[in-house]
């Protein structure tokens, strides 16, 4: 017998798909992060959803953040499920901002020189999508030695 879930008030069967994907609050969280990133996740199973994020064609630095998002989102959903199991409520907005904060931290750790770690999710994507590294260069000139110098 499958136990009832803690994520909805209705109490659906608690399956992996339900907790992490099909529960209304999970759908809302995924949709928020996916739609801002231009990722279409409609009709995907959990595994397909994760690999869609992993394989999403984006600039290299943005990809590193997108790749981490399924783990970040699922971790927050799991924490909320456990909190509710023990009688504590976790608001949707709290989960959303926690996911975003974790993404910001990842950005700061991975690319400390990129400004924009305090931007919201949408701006963060825009910054990473248009990021161009500043190239520092110094022209170097070399003259061959004279033939008779020894
Ligand atoms: Zn549920």
Automatic annotation (TrEMBL):
Highest taxon in the source lineage: Eukaryota
Protein name, UniProt field: Uncharacterized protein
């Amino acid at each position: 017998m499958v136990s009832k879930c803690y994520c909805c008030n209705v109490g659906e069967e608690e399956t992996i798909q339900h907790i992490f994907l099909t529960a209304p609050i999970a759908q809302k969280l995924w949709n928020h992060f996916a739609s801002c990133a231009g990722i279409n996740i409609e009709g995907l199973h959990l595994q397909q959803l994760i690999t869609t994020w992993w394989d999403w064609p984006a600039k290299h630095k943005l990809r590193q953040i997108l790749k981490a998002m399924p783990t970040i989102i699922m971790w927050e959903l799991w924490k909320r499920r456990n909190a509710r199991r023990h009688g504590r409520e976790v608001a949707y907005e709290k989960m959303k901002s926690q996911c975003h904060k974790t993404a910001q931290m990842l950005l700061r750790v991975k690319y400390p020189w990129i400004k924009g770690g305090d931007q919201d999710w949408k701006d963060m994507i825009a910054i990473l999508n248009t990021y161009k590294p500043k190239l520092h260069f110094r022209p170097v000139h070399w003259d061959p030695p004279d033939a008779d110098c020894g």
